[in-house]
Amino acid sequence: MSTPVTLMDGGMGTSLRMRFPEKLTRDPLWSARMLLSDEGANEVVNLHGDFITAGSRVVTTNNYACVPLYLERAENLDLEALNALSVSLCERAIDRFAGSNDVKIAVSLPPLRQSYSTGERGGTLEEDMAVYDRIVRSTSHRADFYVVETVSTAWASVAPVLAAAKSGKKCLVSFSVSDEPEAYGNLRSGESVGVALDELAAAKAVPHGVLFNCAAQNSISKAVESLCAGITSETLPFPVQVAGAYANALKAIPKGWDHHRDGPTGDLTVTPEEYAATVDSWLASADAANAASGGGNAAVGFLAGGCCGILPKHIQHLAGHLAKRSRCEDF
Q1: Phi, psi of 247, deg, nearest 5
Q2: For the chain, what percentages of helix, strand and coil (3-state, to nearest 5) are there?
Q3: Shortest CA distance to 144 belongs to which of 107, 173, 108?
Q4: How far apart are the two ends of the chain, measured CA to CA in Å?
Q5: Can you tell me whether residue 185 is helix, strand or coil?
Q6: Collapsing DSSP states into helix, strand and coil, what is residue 69?
Q7: What pLDDT tens digit does each residue of the chain (331 aa) get?
């Protein structure tokens, strides 16, 4: 069975850094800086537009850094207002660039602590949910669905999924898996994807789908293969209706890496053709799972896109490469 696929966008933060290195390299506000001026907001709209023109049918809000970790580094920054603005900029891009194409808005629910952190929680579940509730309330008026992004340890997925559920919108959870070859396919914490899904199920925080992002392509391929095997064997703790992946084109992110302390790890030269071959491997795993299910109720759709270092040119090539596949329903 040919798995239906919807094409997401690429890496917003790294694409903006490449375009404006003097503004964003080692900036403590990271990509949130672009939301603080009309000029910056217009550039965010233009980048969304470049991805839409390339073929993205999902654009993700530029709010990854609109959390207290970043916003408290400057004065008088309003979390609700900036998150709401990130949605409005997606709307402006769709109005300007989408034409007759149906483009969805995915609202990011990012980590509340340093990306890739696998240490102690640093806050209670209730405290984390209070922050995510604020993000959801300020964006749910226009969100088509939520994506809990770059989850590096199992406990970090629960609060945002529970918060998103209050909106009545679909929610996907996306895990960041290890860049260490000996741990490919496991979360950066070392936990297996199965353990992470068990924790969600135990908390009654059940997402609509499971994705993987912000990691090496080989590791994500291993994680997708494992997830699809669980779908085939019906051993997952809840039904997964949508799978997906969006990988990095960065040098490996080592344990303990801190973006603001250590700077970017460095970009890899990944051609659009090479990235398409990686996406093909993900879809082969999904095709096998769907073939095993007979295309029945257990069939899954797939969301494919790119994370750090994946640019409009990669998405444009993917759009042509995947053109014969139908679109994933509801996305």
Answers
A1: -95, 170
A2: 45, 15, 40
A3: 107
A4: 19
A5: coil
A6: helix
A7: 799 999 999 999 889 988 888 776 677 788 899 999 999 999 999 999 999 999 999 999 999 999 998 898 887 799 999 999 999 999 999 999 999 999 999 999 999 988 888 877 778 999 999 999 999 999 999 999 999 999 999 999 999 999 999 999 999 999 999 999 999 999 999 999 999 999 999 999 999 999 999 999 999 999 999 999 999 999 999 999 999 999 999 877 777 666 656 556 666 689 999 999 999 999 999 999 999 877 554 579 999 999 999 999 999 999 999 999 999 988 9
Q: What is the DSSP string of 266-298?
A: -B----HHHHHHHHHHHHHHHHHHHHHHTTSTT
Residue 258 and residue 263: Cα distance in Å, rounded? 7
Which structure tokens are listed for 268?
Answer: 């890899």
- Residue 302 and residue 159: Cα distance in Å, rounded? 24
In degrees rounded to 5, what are phi and psi of residue 254?
-75, 165
Element (H, E) at 42: helix 38-54
Taking the whole predicted model, whether its pTM rises above 0.90 is answered as: yes
- What span, in angstroms and rounded, lies between the C-alpha atoms of 115 and 149? 10
Instruction: Report the helix count and the strand count for the chain, using DSSP H and E.
Output: 12, 8
